[in-house]
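Possible regression after last week's pipeline update?

I re-ran a chain I had predicted before the update to compare outputs. Posting the input and the new output here so someone can diff against the archived version. Not blocking, just want to make sure nothing changed silently.
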Amino acid sequence: MTPIPSRALPDVAAGLCFLFILLVPFTAAGLAMINTGLGRSRNAAHMMMSSLCVIAVAAVVYFLIGFSWQGYSGRPGYAFTVSGKLWSWIAADPFFWRGLKMDGSADSLAALLGMLSVGLAAIIPLGSGADRWRLGASCASAALLAGWTFPLFAHWVWGGGWLAQLGVNYGLGQGFLDSGGAATIQVVGGLTALAVTWILGPRRGKYTPDRMPLAIPGHNGVFILCGCFLAWLGWIGLDSAGAILFTGVEAGRAVLIAANATLAAVCSLLAVALITRARFGKPDASLCANGWVGGLVSSSAGCAVIPPAAAMIVGLVAGVLVTFSVELLELHLTVDDPGGAISVHAVGGMWGLLAVAVFATGVPGENASGQWIAQMAGIATLLGFVLPMTYALHRLLNRISPMRVAREGERQGLDLHELGAGAYPDFMSHNDDLQR
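New output (post-update):
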């Protein structure tokens, strides 16, 4: 076990970082509202309850064992040596946060941010599994994510692991850069959503016998759009805290981070609005909301190291990618993703990781060559290792206990089937009861 030198935080930076972390739950509230609004009315309470439950399970499991695998630079970890170069592959902290002083130090702030971040990652797949994913199965998925998948990859990126060491060991820029969690939170969550969606299959009535998709619109546009505002506020805190802790930028760069997140979000939304207006005659509110969040996702990786003009380009491209990715998945690949989580978080996040190599100008240090290879190595790891591992774990989980609700439960609605009460008891409308 060999520790990597830690990064100390001045008191002012630590205080600001703590305040930024306190904003992160707004992101969870925003994503939960968006997922709820995009689903059917008879599953609304179930979606909100699932959001709270996966956050609770993820927080407990992360406290018990997750941070032990993630760690932080300067804390103990397991490493191996190749050609005289040290590569850290997993942390070796005690369980239950033993020995971790919750005193505002950098590692205590990293543990707190990690506990909130893994909850965000666990919420993302709920949008893809909407209307058919059992509550217990989503909690089990959150436990897998918080206990293994998230902390392992987070160590490689945020805990001084081998992806972060690509710059030191091979001179590849500053190593794999992900200031605000575009890879660690968003892509990991989005790829989990893809694995879950593959296993669950499409919603009942979504596709005709010849595999043509039918529109199942979200039940509450106000929830969807209000969720965008909450996510925006929380994202600024998430990106700022992550950049201070994991990229080593000064606290004053939070101004740039807030500007970049905002510009990327608004430009992505405008791109989606223009595309849907041109194609369908009117802007699509649900897709615009996905575009807004997709812009926030794409800005996260390079939020502290790209100029505002580049953030606008990143957002515009994200809007285009989200719009056409949703169509590709639904129409051509028959992937039923009600919340658009795969397009928003996985596709948008990977574009944001590439954008770091294209637009980064404020990377700490002088050596910026090779950043392309470092970013591509991270993306290849996500697609070549994290996705297959996540799919295999969820396939095993599905064999132990089926993740999808029974057919009658899906028809009746998860609110009544699993919770015993509907979100809107005064009006219950099941307009697809007669569909096969």
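Follow-up from reviewer: compared with the archived run. The beta strands are 77-82, 85-91. Marking as no regression found.
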